[in-house]
Every structure is written in structure tokens, then in C-alpha cells.
Design a protein that fits this description.
The complex is a heterotrimer of chains A (224), B (601) and C (92).
Chain A lengths: L6 H4 L16 H30 L13 H26 L3 H31 L26 H33 L9 H26 L1
Helix pairs in contact in A: 2-5, 2-6, 3-4, 3-6, 4-5, 5-6
Chain B lengths: L1 H16 L7 H6 L4 H31 L24 H37 L7 H20 L22 H4 L3 H30 L12 H32 L13 H34 L7 H14 L15 H29 L8 H24 L1 H7 L3 H31 L5 H27 L19 H31 L13 H4 L60
Helix pairs in contact in B: 3-4, 3-5, 3-16, 4-5, 4-7, 4-8, 4-9, 4-14, 5-7, 7-8, 8-9, 8-10, 9-11, 9-12, 9-14, 10-11, 11-12, 12-14, 12-15, 14-15, 15-16
Chain C lengths: L13 H19 L5 H23 L7 H8 L1 H13 L3
Helix pairs in contact in C: 1-2
Classes of the chains: A mainly alpha (224), B mainly alpha (601), C mainly alpha (92).
Chain lengths: 224, 601, 92
């Protein structure tokens, strides 16, 4: 291990020595990692379909920024990255046993995560008002800043893939926010200590994974 | 090892003692967190679905054997939209075919293999007190219940149950106007999405348990083969199910909110659905056979009283099947108009995957060779598994070759093949497993007499049903056809179809012997001793009987050797349990023949 | 590996990673609107996205300090992702 092998490593709780050494991490963490692998495959089926459909029908997918509001979403991306850093800060605080800071950072994560979902809902409402909907029948955007009645930009596969991918990501963020609220309630009851804060680490893994998926989605949906 | 042993003794008190107070009825039988009770719940539920799937198969066979004639006895029970006066309508026939496959694959065989044996065997065979996440395990069963109810309910909604085949090929399944079924298709999709969560939670649990909760000394290459195969199967489930879930969600959106992922009318790609479906579907095929292979390996080694031939080769074969299983999905799509380069590579990879399967077959034969074979009911089923799997595997080689697949694609040859591996393979494996572990589950032996009657009826009727289907297929009898007599060249085959149908009714009726024996033995069977099969694995030798909460009353057991040390020269008995320390075993016994030497280690 | 707290703590460089992620995101948005050929734009953006994703996984998800066997486990689905997408792409 490197000299960086530090607080993070100390807190990988030693597994129960009644058993043959397996993964050398505690059960819940291993379970979360295994679950995240299946999440990778789930997003692969959605993102992969997008890549394949886009490759097959490039005319359905307009240039970046023509339909989607890139500045708004870039701002939202900033929010999600912030929520990741508040999450690791909360984790670092509870590692040192600093309950006050831990709860504050956790509360911050919840608020920023909720704000992300809110901004995404707002973005959806703007896009739907511009006739950019998920269904093939409701697809008629003319592009940002263009006059109504102009030529339609892109094709219905754009709307379908956009809403499916970002929608399921948004659902994951929402579930993450709910889980974090649960963790906060547990924290208020004093469940987590410097010696045992496995729940925080595990929910953190999920939260960062959701952030990681957004990094990929933001790039391939909004920027390419 | 020594340190593990020391710490294990220190912790030993923790395992057996926590749940001694009596739990309420609901916590014991309904929302139990005990892996053995959850296994029994899965067993009863999936046997019920096996029965439902069998009845649907019977209706399908009635239409094919006696087209246009009213169903006897129960014909008047059907509504006017399904079978007026007992005569099956074409739309209803489509639903029957679809739902037979759906129930059998997703609600009967999958839970019978993974849900039942994953839950029952994994903790017992690796020496763990329970699953890593017992409450998640409860959830895994109870998530699958609404899925089953929704799927059953789809028969009673407007338009009837889904009729686009179990593969739900788009655009037939993507647009309600094409198949005439909207609500049924939506329920089908929602039900399978929910069922996916159940499989997923199960897989996470099994993987974590096997990696992190093996008893001291239970190294990877001392694990019994059922556990090995369930471990690998869990990986396939974990990584394949989400792909299907994603595809099902897109198809659901196509059906309900009018997106056009798979609908060519809006430039969608039906071929994309086929790729997504089979990228899940081929690992699924191995999900349905690998656990049965594991069960059969255990039974064959035990009932031949010999170490399994080539234990390491068996494990590596399971692992390589799992790896190769990801690169062969295209062989289901040779006729879809796919890229020929891709088709050729899929053909080659499919022929390669026959190698590990053949290794397993030869190892079973090697295990039997010069063995002291006991023809008990589990062994009969296990031997039938090997024989039927060989036939199913050989017909698989036909289809793997793209040029040969062109004439037999979507004919009854395919139906024969799938039933030889899924009934002849998986279901015989399941019967071997149930009859073998029944004493551990319920504390009583299953009646050997009824078991043998059931076995012989099944094996004869089964071959009478499915072997002639090869012949039908080679004469281009289409799969999923409502009335073959509408084609002149198929009319001479009506006699064969009627024969198959009568054999199928005998086959279904024969399963009632099993059902009776199952419930009769559960209450009135002969009381089982601790280790009725003289087995080596921990569930028979170390666990309580029947095991209470915590499984191992004396604390976590220690493991000193591999699981198949039968007829070992180190022991005076013909078996040497995994948990017996090497020291007290008497030495000096000479191997009877070189062939009986235990493998390695 | 002990559970006892040691005297000195070195947190992983959380804030520095945060700064890098922010700068790279801004860089990405700028890069996307350069007038380059589509191929190079897509390639550059993908490289940056993978880089950012790796930073999150290695530092925020602490993968850097996890045992080697967990790395292998985590890498398991990646070949499958590549196989599925590349194989199907050859169809179109």
C-alpha cells in the first residue's frame, strides 16, 4: 500500500474472521459494489441503444446546443459535482468523529441533490414547451431561439433516447436523495460513529456512482 | 488456517444462539428471513407456476393434436374471446404459446434453480449461518410475488395476455395495432421488469455470501459444485438481467407513450431489440442449465460413490461457459439479416462453447466409470439429465452452424432442442435436486416407489413428446403455428402431431404422481436420518437436522478437504466428510483399485 | 489494516479533485463548440469524460485504496459493455 493508505483504508472494516477471507471488505460494501456493476449494465443498455440509434440515424440528432439548453445543464452538472464533494466531506468528517460537520455536509448533499432534480424538472418543462417531447407524435422542436413554425430539428429518436436516459438518471438521483434523508435521520439518532460508519460509506458509493453516470451522460447527450 | 481456527472458536458462540426465542407465525412462514424457509417458499410458488405452465402446454398440444375440436371437460369454462365453446381461437393460441414459455422460463425453471437452490444450498454448503443480507433475501421472494400476480392477471384484461412470443420481437410487441394486444403486453413487460429486481437482489446476495462468508478452510477449490455453479450463475444474472430490464423499459415506452425505439415507422430499429434481448437471452440459457449441472454433479458423484472426475476441470468448464456465453448471442439471429461477418464469428464462438459443455459430459461419464452406482431416484434423474443433455447438445450443434440453421430456423426442430435442454436438462436436474435434498428440507424421505414410477413415466412420455418434434422440424413444420393443416404439405404430419399430443397429456398426468409424492412425503414420509446419502458436504454432516436458525448449532464448521472424497483410502467408511479433521481418521486402508484414487489435493 | 484510529490523518485530496473536475467540465463545454471535425470533437470529449469518471471512481469512491481483487471485480462488466456496443454497431 502507498503512503496515501490513510483514513480511507483504516475504515475498510476488517471482515468477520470467522470466515475465509473473501474480498477483504465488509459485506454491505461488497454488496453495493456488486449492485453497482448491475447498474453499469442497466445504463449500458440505455446508453448503448442511444449510441447505436444515433450511429444508424445521424439525421435524428441535431448539433449540440440547438435544442438542449447547454448552459443550464452545465450549471446543473456543477451542482451534482458539488454534491459529490459534500458527500466525501461528510464521510471524512464522520471518520474523524465530527458529528456536527458530518450532519451539515450530509444536509448540504441532500439539498444540492434535490436542487439537481428540481433543475432537471424545470429543464424538462422548458423543453416540452418547445415541443421537444419523448413520443414520436409530440416531437416538433424548431431549435432554440427560432420562430414557431420553422423546420423541425432532428427526429423522434432524439426525444425518446434523451428522456429515457436522463429520466432514469434523474430517478436514480431521486432515490439517492431519499436514501440520504434516511441516513440523515439515522445520523440524528447517533447511529454513525468514528468506529462504525459503514452505512455512510455505502450510500456514498451509490451517490458517486450516480455522479459518474451523469459525467458520461452530460458529455454524450449534451456535448457530442 | 491456524489463526482462522482460533478466531473461529472465539466467535463460535455467535452463530447458533441469537434466534432462540420463538418467532411469530408470520415471521416464521410468511416474512421469514431464514434462507431455508425462503427456499421453500420459492419451491412451492414455482412448482405452482410449473403446473400452470404445464396446463398451458396441454392446451397448446390440444389445438395441435386435435385442431378445431372443442377442449374436453374444461372447454365450457372458457370465455367467448378465448375459446368459444371450447374451440381455441388463433389469438388465444398466440397467448397460450407466449405465456407457456414465459411462465416456464421466468416463473418456474429460473426460481426452481436459482431461487430454491441458491437460497437453500449456498449458506449450508459453505458453512455460513445465513445469507449476507437476510432481509434483502425476504424482499427477493416478495418482489417476485406481485410479478407473478400481474402476469396471471394479464389473462383477464381486455385483449387477453401477451401474444408476441416469449421473445416479444418488435415491432409486433412494440405497437398495439400489430398484435391486437395492448394491456396484456404492458402487463407482461411490467411483470418482467419487477421480476428482474427479484433476480437482481438474489444475485447480489448470493455473490456477496459466497465471496465473504465461506467457513474457514472452505477455499474456492473446496466448494461443492452446486455452489460453484450457482456462484457463476449469479454473475450471469447480475450482468444480464439489467440489459433485459433496459430493453423492456424501452419497449414499454414504445407501447405506452409512443416512443419509437423499435418501431420502423419512426426510424426505430427492430434489430436493436433482438440484439438487446439475446444479449440477455443467451446468458439466460446458461442461467437455466448451469445450476442443474451443479446439482447433477453432486448427485452423480455421491450415488456412484466416487470423487467427481476432474473437479478442477468441472469448475473451469463452468467458468469458461460463463465467459463464452457473452459472445454467442447472435446465433439466435442468423435469419434476422444480420451482418454476415458478425454471423460467422457468432457461429465460430458457438461451436467453441460446445467444448466446455462436452468436458462436463465426459467428466460425468468418467465419474460413473467403475463406480459403485446406486440407482436411487435422484440418480435416475441425474442420469436422465446427462443422456437428454447430450441429445439437446447435439441438436444445438446443428443450429450453431449458420448454413444448417437456415432451413431449421423457427421450426419444431428448435422446439425439440429447447425442450431437450430445458426439460430434459434443467427439469430432470431439478427433480434430481428435489429428491436428493428433500430429506434436508423437510426431514423426511420421498417415497422411492412413487419416485421410480414417476421417473419411468416421465422419461418415456417425455421422449415420446419431444423426439418426434425433430422430425416435424426437418419437414418444415413451423413453430408457433395455429393450425398446421392450413398448409397442404403439413397435413400428412397430423398423425404425428396427435401422437405427440397424447404423449404430452400422459407426461402432464405423470407429474401428478410427483405432486402427490411431494406432499404425501412431506407429512407421512419415512423419517430421514442425519446423512441418508452418506454425503461429504457440510449441509449433511455439520448442520442441524433440520437446520434451525443459524444452521450450524456447534458454531461455524471448519473444512479440511474437498467435497467429493468418496471411497477415500484415508477412511474406513466409503466417504470422508469435509468437516472431519485429518488426525483422528484411521489410516492403512489400501485403495481397492487404482481407479478409486481420490483426485489431487 | 486496523480499525483503530491512527495519530495522523491524510484525507485523500478531495478538494483538489473537485477543482480538477470543475475545470475539466468547463473545458469540455468550451471544447464542444470548437469548429473541429466531428470525429475529433467526439474523441476528445469521450477521453475527458472517461478521465473525469476515473477520478470520481478512484478518489471519491476510494477505489484507489481498495484491495486489488475488488478492482478485478469492478472491471468485470467493462468488456461486456464494449462487446455489446461494438458488435451491434457493425450492423449499421
Amino acid at each position: 500500500m502507498t503512503s496515501h493508505a490513510t483514513s480511507a483504508e483504516q475504515n475498510m472494516m476488517v471482515p468477520d474472521l470467522t470466515f475465509e477471507p473473501g474480498m477483504k471488505v465488509f459485506n454491505m460494501k461488497l454488496g453495493m459494489w456488486v449492485f453497482l456493476l448491475s447498474e453499469v449494465m442497466f445504463f449500458t443498455s440505455l446508453i448503448g441503444s442511444y449510441v447505436i440509434l444515433r450511429f444508424a440515424h445521424p439525421d435524428h440528432f441535431p448539433e449540440p446546443g440547438v435544442v438542449l439548453n447547454v448552459p443550464l445543464t452545465a450549471f446543473n452538472t456543477f451542482f451534482l459535482i458539488c454534491s459529490s464533494v459534500t458527500m466525501v466531506k461528510a464521510f471524512a468528517a464522520i471518520q474523524k468523529g465530527d458529528q456536527q460537520k458530518f450532519k451539515l455536509w450530509l444536509l448540504g448533499t441532500i439539498l444540492i441533490g434535490a436542487a439537481f432534480v428540481g433543475i432537471q424538472a424545470y429543464e424538462y418543462s422548458l423543453l416540452v414547451a418547445e415541443h421537444f417531447g419523448p413520443s414520436a407524435a409530440g416531437y416538433a422542436p424548431v431549435g432554440r431561439g427560432m420562430e414557431e413554425g420553422g423546420p423541425i430539428v432532428g427526429g423522434p429518436l432524439y426525444g425518446a433516447t434523451f428522456y429515457t436516459m436522463t429520466g432514469f438518471h434523474g430517478a436514480h438521483v431521486s432515490i439517492g436523495v431519499l436514501c440520504l434523508i434516511f441516513v440523515l435521520i439515522q445520523a440524528m439518532r447517533g447511529k454513525y460513529t468514528a468506529a462504525d460508519h459503514r452505512g455512510v460509506e455505502v450510500i456514498g458509493l451509490y451517490w458517486h456512482f450516480v455522479d459518474l453516470v451523469w459525467i458520461v451522460l452530460f458529455t454524450i447527450v449534451y456535448l457530442i | 488456517m491456524a489463526t482462522h481456527a482460533a478466531t473461529a472458536e472465539g466467535h463460535a458462540t455467535g452463530a447458533g444462539h441469537d434466534e432462540h426465542h420463538k418467532l411469530s407465525f408470520i415471521r416464521t412462514y410468511i416474512f421469514s428471513t431464514d434462507h431455508k424457509m425462503i427456499a421453500k417458499q420459492f419451491l412451492l410458488a414455482s412448482l405452482l407456476f410449473l403446473l400452470i405452465g404445464g396446463i398451458l402446454a396441454g392446451l397448446v398440444r390440444w389445438q395441435l393434436g386435435f385442431p378445431g375440436q372443442p377442449i374436453p371437460f374444461i372447454g365450457s369454462m372458457f370465455s367467448d374471446t378465448t375459446a368459444p365453446g371450447g374451440i381455441i381461437l388463433p389469438e388465444f393460441y398466440n397467448s397460450l404459446v407466449t405465456m407457456h414459455a414465459t411462465f416456464m422460463i421466468f416463473f418456474a425453471i429460473m426460481p426452481l434453480l436459482v431461487g430454491v437452490w441458491g437460497n437453500f444450498l449456498i449458506p449450508l454448503q459453505i458453512g455460513a449461518p445465513d445469507m449476507a443480507f437476510p432481509r434483502l433475501n425476504t424482499a427477493s421472494f416478495w418482489i417476485s410475488v406481485p410479478a407473478g400476480i400481474l402476469m396471471l392477471a394479464s389473462f383477464f384484461v381486455e385483449g387477453g395476455a401477451a401474444g408476441a412470443g416469449w421473445t416479444s420481437y418488435a415491432p409486433l410487441s412494440a405497437n398495439p395495432e400489430y398484435s391486437g394486444v395492448h394491456m396484456g403486453q404492458v402487463l407482461w413487460l411490467v411483470s418482467l421488469i419487477i421480476l428482474g429486481f427479484s433476480s437482481l437482489t438474489g444475485a447480489v446476495n448470493y455473490i456477496t455470501t459466497i465471496i465473504n462468508m465461506r467457513a474457514p478452510g472452505m477455499t474456492w477449490f473446496r466448494m461443492p459444485l452446486p455452489t460453484w455453479s450457482l456462484f457463476v450463475t449469479s454473475w450471469l444474472l447480475l450482468l444480464a438481467i439489467p440489459i433485459l430490464t433496459g430493453g423492456l423499459i424501452m419497449l414499454l415506452f414504445d407501447q405506452t407513450i409512443g416512443t419509437g425505439f423499435f418501431n420502423p415507422a419512426t426510424d426505430g430499429e427492430p434489430l436493436l431489440w433482438q440484439h438487446i434481448f439475446w444479449y440477455f437471452g443467451h446468458p439466460e440459457v446458461y442461467i437455466l442449465i448451469l445450476p442443474a449441472m451443479g446439482l447433477v454433479s453432486e448427485v452423480i458423484s455421491n450415488r456412484a460413490r466416487k470423487p467427481i472426475f476432474g473437479y478442477h476441470a468441472m469448475v473451469l468448464a463452468i467458468i469458461s461457459i460463463a465467459f463464452l456465453g457473452w459472445v454467442v448471442w447472435g446465433h439466435h439471429m442468423f435469419q434476422s439479416g444480420m451482418n454476415p461477418l458478425l454471423g460467422t464469428s457468432f457461429m465460430i464462438s458457438t461451436i467453441i462453447i460446445a467444448v466446455p459443455s462436452a468436458i462436463k459430459v465426459f467428466n460425468w461419464l468418467g465419474t460413473l466409470w467403475k463406480g459403485d452406482i446406486h440407482f436411487d431416484v435422484p440418480m435416475l434423474h441425474a442420469l436422465a439429465f446427462v443422456a437428454m443433455f447430450i441429445i439437446g447438445g447435439l441438436s444445438g450443434i446443428f443450429m450453431a452452424s449458420a448454413p444448417v440453421d437456415i432451413p431449421i430456423h423457427d421450426t419444431y426442430f428448435i422446439v425439440a432442442h429447447i425442450h431437450y435442454v430445458l426439460f430434459g436438462g434443467s427439469l430432470f436436474g431439478i427433480f434430481a435436486g428435489i429428491t436428493f435434498w428433500f430429506p434436508k428440507m423437510f426431514g423426511r424421505m420421498m417415497s422411492p416407489k412413487l419416485g421410480k414410477i414417476h421417473f419411468w413415466v416421465t422419461i418415456f412420455a417425455y421422449n415420446a413428446v419431444f423426439f418426434p418434434m425433430h422430425n416435424l422440424g426437418l419437414r418444415n413444420h413451423m413453430r408457433r403455428i395455429y393450425d398446421p393443416n392450413s398448409y397442404e404439405y403439413l397435413q400428412p404430419l397430423q398423425g404425428l402431431n396427435t401422437f405427440i399430443s397424447i404423449a404430452a397429456f400422459i407426461l402432464i398426468a405423470g407429474q401428478m404422481i410427483f405432486a402427490f409424492s411431494f406432499f404425501y412425503s412431506m407429512f407421512f414420509g419415512e423419517k430421514a436420518e442425519q446423512n441418508p446419502w452418506k454425503s461429504n458436504t457440510l449441509e449433511w454432516t455439520a448442520a442441524g437436522h433440520p437446520p434451525g436458525h443459524g444452521n450450524f448449532p456447534g458454531g461455524t464448521p471448519h473444512v479440511y478437504r474437498g467435497p467429493y472424497e468418496y471411497s477415500s483410502p484415508e477412511s474406513n467408511e466409503d466417504f470422508l466428510p469435509q468437516g472431519v479433521p485429518p488426525e483422528p481418521v484411521r489410516r492403512g486402508a489400501v485403495p481397492r483399485e487404482p481407479g478409486f484414487l481420490p483426485t489431487g489435493d | 489494516m486496523t480499525t483503530e484510529a491512527q495519530g495522523e490523518h491524510h484525507d485523500p485530496p478531495y478538494m483538489m479533485i473537485f477543482a480538477v473536475l470543475l475545470i475539466m467540465t468547463m473545458g469540455e463545454v468550451g471544447f464542444a463548440f470548437l469548429s473541429l471535425p466531428k470525429f475529433w470533437l467526439a474523441l476528445g470529449l469521450c477521453v475527458m469524460a472517461v478521465w473525469k469518471a476515473l477520478l470520481v471512481a478512484l478518489y471519491y469512491m476510494h477505489l484507489r485504496w481498495e484491495p486489488r481483487r475488488l478492482w478485478i471485480l469492478v472491471a468485470a462488466p467493462l468488456p461486456l459493455v464494449v462487446i455489446l456496443i461494438t458488435a451491434v454497431l457493425t450492423e449499421f
